[in-house]
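User: We ran a pulldown and think these components assemble together. Before we commit to crystallization trials, I'd like a predicted model of the whole complex to look at. Sequences follow.
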Amino acid sequence: MRDFLPVDVRKRNYVIGIIKEVYESYGFEPLETPAVENIETLLGKYGEEGNQLVFKILKRGAKLAEVAELQSDRVAEGSNSETPQHRNSENSLADLALRYDLTVPLARVVANNKNDLPKFFKRYQIQPVWRADRPARGRFREFYQCDVDAIGSKSMIVEAELIFAVSEILTKLGFDDFMIRLNHRKILKGILETSGIKEELHTDALIILDKRDKITAEEIRAEFEKKHIPLDGVDRWLKFVNRINKKRSENASEQTLRESNQEVANTLADFLKDHQEGLSGLDELEKIWNLSEQLSEEPHIGIELLLARGLSYYTGAIMEIDLREGNFNISLGGGGRYDGLIGMFGKEQIPACGFSLGLERILVVMEERGMFPAEIAESTPADVMVTIWNDDTVADSLKLASELREQGLRVTLYPEADKLGKQFKYADSIKVPFVCVLGETEIAEGTVTVKNLSSGDQRSVERRSVAMVIKEGENSHQR
Amino acid sequence: MRDFLPVDVRKRNYVIGIIKEVYESYGFEPLETPAVENIETLLGKYGEEGNQLVFKILKRGAKLAEVAELQSDRVAEGSNSETPQHRNSENSLADLALRYDLTVPLARVVANNKNDLPKFFKRYQIQPVWRADRPARGRFREFYQCDVDAIGSKSMIVEAELIFAVSEILTKLGFDDFMIRLNHRKILKGILETSGIKEELHTDALIILDKRDKITAEEIRAEFEKKHIPLDGVDRWLKFVNRINKKRSENASEQTLRESNQEVANTLADFLKDHQEGLSGLDELEKIWNLSEQLSEEPHIGIELLLARGLSYYTGAIMEIDLREGNFNISLGGGGRYDGLIGMFGKEQIPACGFSLGLERILVVMEERGMFPAEIAESTPADVMVTIWNDDTVADSLKLASELREQGLRVTLYPEADKLGKQFKYADSIKVPFVCVLGETEIAEGTVTVKNLSSGDQRSVERRSVAMVIKEGENSHQR
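Assistant: Here's a predicted model for the assembly, 958 residues in total across the polymer chains.
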């Protein structure tokens, strides 16, 4: 987990600012939930691997003492401390856990506040989540998710609007090479069943598939074998997907994305034969990409039949936004429809669909590509520094700083009487563009000596004109 | 811990926005640290009670298994599970902990990044902290602190500037009845020693004193007795303070605050006789209030000899900002000088001083007093809602929504084709001021029917003028 020094925070806030602005322009409203959730709220929502990665908070005081005593008794009675005991101990020692994503807390909030929320609740949420994962490039144990979700409708207009909003954010940040990949849990189910893989193995199969970018084809096969998923079924499936992808890349130069998607859809419809659920998933995807043609003439949207997404709560369309970098795809975010999750927290099933942008990934790529505007990358802590001449003039300097602030400047005051050279050296080190000197002569004359640190110009200015001179200097510098 | 629905988040962001703006106008820069710290970083910094209130995170995987095994062995060897064992178990089961305040993480950051930070580092930080405390009015287990700290100088100009900044924030938020209370750890030390209380009992005495607003005088005496602090010394001290306070309230109508402070200072100087450290503390306080006269002609600053502040890391001036409500003081924040804390994380002692505003307290009082501006309290999720006529016109509605957004409006789209009555009912429920209807006639004619929901006016508008009509309507509504 990392500290963010001022220059980092400014870059993060710049990106978050654009994300908020776009989400709000689509009518999404802000929601915030606590970092800490009851452990039962989180466990069982993210699959077995997710359970392991949740940070758990130790019980406190009497409750902890109780558990410890219980366990001592058990051990004293001769039960051994093998794995099942440990797992039990882990869950009995903790009662709270750190937020693992923003979707499960949203589902809890919607279920608990049904009557206070509008029929269609459109919310965004930009907060950190925590996973006890191994850190990697752009992956951290504390990271921010920028989620946007629409609750209450099964219409594919929701998916289309989420794709619009997220695409607009990336465009405003300066990305022009992103690709939206779509798949559908019902299509995946259709392919798996048509390939002869039984339903109880589907979750495992999807989780393995979701790692396709991180591990080799050999490792994938080994994982399938470990989970007793029949390899002939898997092979049939992978062969089908490879055939589609090969054909698609052969035709890439002649076909539009739309034509390519249509062709994939046709081939897929043949493969699914009369698997009704799979075909209905395909139908939904077609609706989504038809609507997204309103976004631009040639939207960068493609079916991606190996897209699975690891989380177990998705039920419909699943989406990911990728950047192509060399031979790799970098995912900047993803999401999908989860019509069953809210019902796990309340009596009513409420349909929902959402998208999550990963702030850290976006920042890493923007940094590498030098995409931050100069005023963010080179920002300074203040517009001007006011010096302190000696102990007797402190009050005068405080007053000058206060006057300049009232006129809208950001003013930092050197915190003590010191040699003027040292004060200028400090001003240089924090890169403020202007320094004001207020010595005994200036005080007597009602003037201030203003020095422009980048040009080296220094001149005596009437006190009431100081703010104006600095503002003009800043503007001319920007030009 | 609480969820914040949209109206709550908007209020929080309004207050945070003003706090950031003022801190930045003083040249403070943003810093963010992770929610999770190593447990050793936090333990021992907040006193014994603080240690208990830190949320601790369970070790994971192999590390946890190791500890559990070790403990089973110990229990099997016949050691019992009394309190010391539990405490040991608590600390051995956890390796991480949730941030308890923003000052200790800052000290760690400064010690670790000495060479990357300016000589005087002025930072602000607005993030949540967590304490396993009993919740009360305006006190929660997750709450935001809005901290501002200046690192690197021992000058009292720092204290004065912090008081300026925090006062300006409260004034901008609309508070006009706050009072800044000052005391000094060296004065407290002087009073305690002069009262015959030995140095090793000072920490306990200050912690008990810090509860004076929460418990009765009898309970305070009982706590002193429990800690074996000689009651005759305590009585001498409390009598002295009561005498001062009585005299002050008698003179309240005739004296300015400045005169009253001066009189307290004189009486205190007599009491401290030649306790040099205590007198130097008093001298520092006098400097602070002299400088704060630059803030206003009659700054609301008073010496408060019973102010102790619970945290153990303070070494110099301590400060609190209170509101008077009936017979109670509500503290909106506090701070002080901690010249020894950073040295606990690095080789070098670096002086530091800071102030922390409690966001939750501020929000509770602003809510009770109705201090939020109307545009925050009554804000809506969007400026306009676009309806959907039928399944064939979805693309047209998407396009209209997108056009209006491009012209700077916040636009929400009804997410599905539905009866128009239902769509209007929804628009009413989320309180959008305008609704656009785009039916087949409108599409054919290149118009949009715009309805103003508050006046009930409805008229046909040329498509390219829709945004303008809505903006004008919003302005006239505000007037």
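Residues 80-86 of chain A have pLDDT under 50 and may be disordered. That may be worth checking against your pulldown data before setting up trials.

User: Thanks, that helps.
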